[in-house]
Amino acid sequence: MKKINTRFGEVEYDPDNLLHFPAGLVGLPSLRDFIVMPNKKKGPLFWIQSVDNPDIAFVLTDPTNFFLDYQLSPEESEREILQIKDGDDVFILSVVTVPQDQTITLNLAAPILFAPTTNRAIQVIMENSPYSSKTLLPE
């Protein structure tokens, strides 16, 4: 087990259970390994904490909790990065932003594809998407 100091305090983690982004995140290519933080509150939101930079953490959610028709299937190149085969589970996640005015948005233009069988993830940019990087939550 290893430990890092974060905004959540000291966090102990198993390096074998990290969420790995082989290409990093969009605009943050050096952030590749994250801890999925235990969800202390019930609800659709959870945190991932960067191991590479303990000052950085993101709130994520399954966007289909709010947008029932939101879909994305990984392309072959993305399946290779995720190291998955046809039929393996892939979950879609979105980064959540909560600015000071409390207008919560989801980044639906650059979702995260997560493969639980390999603990790998990739953030993809959807071209010609009707969604935005700051899609407001529905009322």
Within CATH, the superfamily carries the name BH3618-like
Just give the CATH class.
Mainly Beta
Assembly state of the chains shown: single chain
**Proportion of beta-strand residues:** 25-35%
Alpha carbon gap, first and last residue: 43 Å
Tell me roughly what share of residues is in helical segments. Answer: under 10%
Question: Can you summarize this structure?
Answer:
Helices cover 5% and strands 33% of the residues. With 139 residues, the chain is mainly β. A hairpin with an 8-residue loop joins strand 4 (33-36) and strand 5 (45-50).
Task: Describe the protein.
With about 140 residues, the protein is mainly β. It has one domain (about 1-135): Roll (BH3618-like), CATH 2.30.290. Helix content is about 5%, strand content about 35%. The strands form 2 sheets. Strands 3, 4, 5, 6, 7, 8, 9, 10 and 11 form a 9-stranded antiparallel β-sheet that branches. Strands 1-2 form a two-stranded antiparallel sheet. It contains 1 helix and 11 strands. The chain has one helix at about 75-80, and strands at about 1-5, 10-15, 20, 35, 45-50, 55-60, 90-95, 105, 110-115, 120-125, 135. The relative contact order is 0.17. It starts with a strand and ends with a strand. Strand 7 (about 90-95) and strand 8 form a beta hairpin.
Features of the shown structure:
139 residues, mainly beta, BH3618-like, 1 helix
SSE topology sketch:
Elements: E1 2-6, E2 9-13, E3 19-20, E4 33-36, E5 45-50, E6 57-61, H1 76-82, E7 91-97, E8 105-106, E9 112-115, E10 120-123, E11 135-136
Antiparallel strand pairs: 1-2, 3-4, 4-5, 5-6, 6-7, 7-8, 7-9, 8-11, 9-10
